[in-house]
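pasting for ref
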Amino acid sequence: MRKYETVYILRPDMDEAACDAVIAKIDETITANGGAVEQTDKWGLKKLAYAIDDYREGSYVVVTFNADSAVIKALDYVFKVNDAILRYLVIRVDE
């Protein structure tokens, strides 16, 4: 398994419970497909460099995990179908 890091931005108009539900869904997707979550950090509300879907702010979340390529494909699908996620980026961390 390789080490990955993903950053995703949630809509700022969501309440805390809805944000936690999305974060749990992402972590669950990783573990259900054979990955292992190392750390999940909520950075909180930050100003965006440019407007995304008329939002000027977003709630940033960073997840570090170990996984195979199948997990990345599953995550990509979840990120694309979830309307609460404005943007995302998954990178492989070289150790």
